[in-house]
Amino acid sequence: MTVSPQRARHRAARRPVTPLDDLALAATGSLATVGRRSAVVAASGGLVMTMALPAAAAPAEGPANALPAVDVSALTAEARAALATSPVVSVPVDAAWGFDAPAITVTANPEPEPVVTRASAATARSTTSTRAAVESAVPQSVAGNAVLEIAARYVGTPYVSGGTTPDGFDCSGFTSYVYAQLGITLPHSSADQRYAGVEVSRDQAQPGDLIWSPGHVGIYAGGNQQIDAPRPGKSVQFRDIWQSNPIFIRVTG
Length: 253
Prior knowledge:
Blueprint: H1 19-27, H2 31-34, E1 38-42, E2 48-52, H3 72-75, H4 77-85, H5 118-136, H6 146-152, E3 164-165, E4 168-169, H7 171-180, H8 190-193, E5 198-200, E6 210-213, E7 216-220, E8 225-228, E9 237-240, E10 247-250
Antiparallel strand pairs: 1-2, 3-4, 5-10, 6-7, 6-10, 7-8, 8-9
């Protein structure tokens, strides 16, 4: 009897599986095969690296940094509701736009009415009545007499010391202004006007001649009247001759 020796069966030699093999499988996408393992790699320099891998990793459906989804319909719900309830405005295609400018009329402001107080009204009445009384006393000799006609225009002009204009006269300023309207120049001084013409007697005096007394001068108006600018507080007026011995001077120009 022949006895054959029994030989032990051995598995075929296989390359040992190392942690690096597990990493390679994970890199190629075989995560399900690898499972949850811990890979430890010992480097020649003594560096140890540990990696924890999931038992089963499913491929991601999008980028790793994708934002979470937002419900847009909820955000626009109020806007859609407002549009649904707002009135519909329609404009014809051939509609034309235009603007009508109203006509504007510019009217100047009216002149303000003068404010009349009781005092001013009383003064005005007094002045009017005084002027009327003076003008009613104008002698008949004024008519046709050039000098007196000019002089009568300034009845009521106030006496102003040194005045030579219709704003105010003194006695010699009044006579010189009246004669100046006829082209005759008289000095503005009663003393100098004493010698501005030829002296005549009272019975030879004519309306329009100067009537002079020391410190005062006026214009003879005929009869027993003269017109002059009397003194401060008074105004140009016709009045009776008050001088006792006046001198009458005829200015011939």
